[in-house]
Amino acid sequence: MARDGARDGHLGEHIETDLLVIGAGSGGLSAAAGAAQLGVGVVLLEAGRMGGDCLNFGCVPSKALIAAARHAHAMRTGAPFGVAPAEPRIDYAAAMEHVRRTIAGIAPHDSQERFEGLGVRVIREHGRFIAHDTVDAGPFRITARRIVVATGSAPLVPPIPGLRDVPYLTNESLFDLRERPEHLIVIGGGPVGLEMAQAHVRLGARVTVLEGVEALGQDDPELAAVVLERVRAEGVEIVEGAMAERVTGGAGALSVHTRDGRRHDGSHLLLAVGRAPNLADMGLETAGVAFDRTGIEVNAGLRSTNRRVYAIGDAAQGLNFTHVASYHAGVVVRRALFGLPARATNRHIPWATYTDPELAQVGLTERAARVRHGDRLEVVRARFADNDRARTEAETDGLIKVMVVRGRPVGASIVGPQAGELIQLWALAIASRLKMSAIAGMVAPYPTLGEISKRAAGEYFSPRLFENDAIRRYVRFVQRL
Ligand SMILES: Cc1cc2nc3c(=O)[nH]c(=O)nc-3n(C[C@H](O)[C@H](O)[C@H](O)COP(=O)(O)OP(=O)(O)OC[C@H]3O[C@@H](n4cnc5c(N)ncnc54)[C@H](O)[C@@H]3O)c2cc1C
Ligand SMILES: NC(=O)c1ccc[n+]([C@@H]2O[C@H](COP(=O)([O-])OP(=O)(O)OC[C@H]3O[C@@H](n4cnc5c(N)ncnc54)[C@H](O)[C@@H]3O)[C@@H](O)[C@H]2O)c1
């Protein structure tokens, strides 16, 4: 409902609505679509591009560039298959054109027009709280019964001396490049850094990754090591324990000085040292919404310290993934619109890093499971080297580890081909509290990479079956009968 704003001293339009969503990225779009389709009045604010980070600067462009790089890599590595290896002639601008086309192809799904078609009132303005239930956005003042903050995050720019004096790239500018960097220095060995490092080396750039602590440090170190070994073998120089402390030089010739006293020279610099939630200039204090540098403080129902205001996705404290933002949106819709006691948990949330080989995780890592469950933990493993499909593809690097407590998986870690696809079975198993017997009993088509999951479950039961004297005696007894 819109009313004349002049009465409250505001000269623009004053809108009253059931739900105001701030931010049209993965989280905000899911929340707005869900609510609008239930017939609720929704206003959606977006200050930048519809689709947010994932579509414009994150998942989609990075995976599109990775796909281009995979083609280049395949040309160099055909020898074992009898295909003469050839050094590809790479048109970096054309690879980036594939990135642009991919974004453009998906954009209509996230567009203003589509959301207006769903009945959402889309306003392309920056939102700022002026009261606990009211947000100003350009000429609009919006009062809402419920407000969802889905403002996402931006690349963290640390206060490294000299950094602001050199042209540096982030995920927001990298995909605008049309000329291949000659020597890309990446600060940060997390998923952004490693995915883009491998893509660039495959596309013919020299690449150095400087990681202050441990590369891919959020993942199981044994599995992360498999990725790092491959990425290094492809030519990326990965320096761990190399905290960037100072940057010197200028466009085309810059140097990063690390705490260990070394200097690393390159032509371009990519910052990939994490994310900062987009919460500045939002008037959150005015609205009584508590937050810190990691995001808005929320309870299990994703409600902030202001009971009308929810926070989802990268704007909330917790994991930063597109599927988490969408999952959060579902929790908020169920809670705010249906009044259901929905709660968000990370217990069953998977994530994957799309290097080659891929690295995927759901639930507890071995280290975390050991701390939580102590001696009750059993870890079963299976290797891609023992998977027939992986052999046919000559993709035998990698393994799966499943953390099991009292017959149920509490975590799974996979490094290897299509780990991001393979982790999904374990995400389902953990979410649905399935037993290992359910996985062992599943019939998987042969030959598939997915058989590795069944094999891991088999590893759990093998010692129980084949090394159990009572079972052996019973089988002998049945045979005598
Ligand atoms: C390079 C890279 C690769 C990634 N790859 C993956 C991947 O493969 N898989 C995966 O799951 N995740 C990936 N991520 C993470 C993923 O992009 C984010 O977790 C996801 O986009 C978060 O969604 P969101 O809705 O919380 O925020 P966003 O998508 O960032 O959307 C927030 C929106 O809010 C708008 N906004 C901000 N403040 C305001 C305001 N005050 N008023 C109005 N609008 C505002 C912004 O303009 C933005 O459009 C990647 C990230 C990066 C950087
Ligand atoms: N495949 C995916 O799902 C995917 C891909 C990319 C990004 N993401 C999301 O985006 C988030 C951000 O990714 P990211 O890789 O930017 O951040 P990250 O926090 O995961 O990794 C950043 C790395 O930079 C290092 N670092 C920090 N300061 C440094 C310095 N001064 N010098 C050297 N190293 C330094 C840290 O030790 C850390 O290892 C991830 O947490 C993830 O949630 C997901």
What does this structure look like?
- The chain is α/β, with parallel strands linked by helices.
- Helix content is 33%, strand content 25%.
- It has 14 helices and 24 strands.
- Helix 1 (26-37) packs parallel to helix 8, helix 3 packs across helix 4 and helix 3 packs parallel to helix 6.
- The model has no long low-confidence stretch (mean pLDDT 96).
- NAD(+) binds at residues 188-195, 211, 274.
- FAD binds at residues 63, 127, 151-153, 314.
- GO terms for molecular function: flavin adenine dinucleotide binding; NAD(P)H dehydrogenase (quinone) activity; oxidoreductase activity, acting on a sulfur group of donors, NAD(P) as acceptor.
- Its cofactor is FAD.
Layout of helices and strands, plus pairs?
Blueprint: E1 2-4, E2 13-22, H1 26-37, E3 42-45, H2 52-56, H3 59-76, H4 92-106, H5 112-117, E4 121-123, E5 127-131, E6 134-137, E7 140-149, E8 153-155, E9 183-187, H6 191-202, E10 206-211, H7 221-233, E11 237-240, E12 244-250, E13 253-258, E14 263-266, E15 268-271, E16 275-277, E17 291-292, E18 295-296, E19 309-311, H8 322-338, E20 350-353, E21 358-363, H9 366-373, E22 377-383, H10 388-392, E23 399-405, E24 408-416, H11 419-431, H12 436-441, H13 451-466, H14 469-480
Parallel strand pairs: 2-3, 2-7, 3-4, 7-19, 9-10, 9-15, 10-11
Antiparallel strand pairs: 1-2, 5-6, 6-7, 8-16, 12-13, 13-14, 17-18, 20-21, 21-24, 22-23, 23-24
The structure holds flavin-adenine dinucleotide and nicotinamide-adenine-dinucleotide.
The site of nicotinamide-adenine-dinucleotide has 28 residues, from helix 6, strand 10 and strand 20.
Protein name: Dihydrolipoamide dehydrogenase
Domain FAD/NAD(P)-binding: 18-329
Pfam family, one: Pyr_redox_2
